[in-house]
Amino acid sequence: MKKSRIGVLTGGGDCAGLNPALKWVVKTATDERLVKERSTHYEVLGIRDGWEGLFNVNPSRWQTDPSITLLDSDIVRTWDRYGGTMLGTSRFSPFDPKNDVSKKVISNIKKIGLEAIIVIGGDGTLATAERFSTQGIPIVGIPKTIDKDLPETDYTLGFETALNVIVEEVDRLRTTAGSHQRIFIVETMGRNAGWLALEGGEACGAYIILIPEWDFSFDRVNKLIREGKKAGNRYEIIIVAEGAKPIGGRQIVKREGMDSFGRKALGGIGEVVAREIEESTGVETRSVELSHLQRGGAPCAYDRRMGRYFGIAAVDLIVNEHYGNMVCFKNGKIACVPLANICNKLNLVDPKTQYDTDRYNGRRTILYSGK
Ligand code: F6P
Which domains does the chain have, with CATH numbers? Predict the structure, then answer.
């Protein structure tokens, strides 16, 4: 029986859905019945803290190194019930121009004898996977990010659980907003893509939704609020994505500097919008930043299912030696795309067809293009 050692890691921001994917990678790779069919016995090594684990590990003693953990189906049995990632994650980039450690990572991969690696990540982590792949490392990717901004896939792990958080929190805010006749601004994540704000806002019935793909006018927002007041609305819920900005304005950053993937820490636009509305309309306005609550909690049923399918598909790619691909969900089917196709591209909301640029909300016609 042939033996093959594969690695799995989670990189970038955590989210719900990572643990279900890890569970099903391990269960599928080590499945006794499939072992016979494939004539290969897979051993799965969990790599701790993303790419950092492959840098930190002592390759000659990996069996006892805390950066590596041997996984089997007993260990992962209950993982799909939990949020976050049991392997830990980091935003460590081996190709960081200030400290390029990619050669050491490649050498560690070879010394440990990893014949393939499954990388679960968003744009930064998968771009790194693609670079290793072009350098001959057999890699497959699984898409995750609550922002759902990765191209070539209709789903990224974590998104639906995050939407559920938005809906639950807005439901909570409605009672206090209504009691006090206040406006509540709810700031969601979504640096470039407005999916969380748009679909979260549609799901919870928000009055106004502001997304990064469409710069908004404060005058228009205030006019909509006055219209709502006139119509007798006691309160309003406004959802704003962290990456949204007013016409002629800039994205609001929480703190200066960039992470190792070159990204700014966004946050604070909700507060800016709240201040502006209160000053212009005189209606008491509060803002709530949902922030990392959207990444926490147990995965919803959809993320457990999608984690399972993506995990199984990633192992299928390895069994068939279809390296350099990312599993994806396209037109209702699990499929795969070359990792190269997802680099330097984003899946954004198309304001022309997916957003009502007049009401600043979801569309009221779906089958036809007119508003
Ligand atoms: O990349 C996903 C994301 O959820 C972004 O929307 C957000 O800006 C970012 O993570 C924040 O992540 P962290 O605080 O972990 O750096």
Answer: 2-157+299-341 (3.40.50.450), 162-296 (3.40.50.460)
